[in-house]
Amino acid sequence: MIQGGESPLPASLYIVATPIGHLDDMSLRAIDVLRSVNLIAAEDTRHSSKLMRHFDIRTPLISYHDHSESSDLEGMLKRLRAGETIALISDAGTPLVSDPGYKLVVACHQERIPVVPIPGASATITALSAAGLPTDRFYFEGFLPSKPGQRANRLQALTAIEGTLIFFESPRRLAASLEAMYQVLGDREAALCRELTKTHETIYRAVLSGLHKFVLSDANQRRGEVVILVRGFDPATVTLTPETSRLLARLADELPPRRAAAVVADITGLPARQLYQWLLDQRYDS
Question: What fold does the segment set 13-121 form as a domain?
Answer without folding.
Answer: Cobalt-precorrin-4 Transmethylase; domain 1 (3.40.1010)
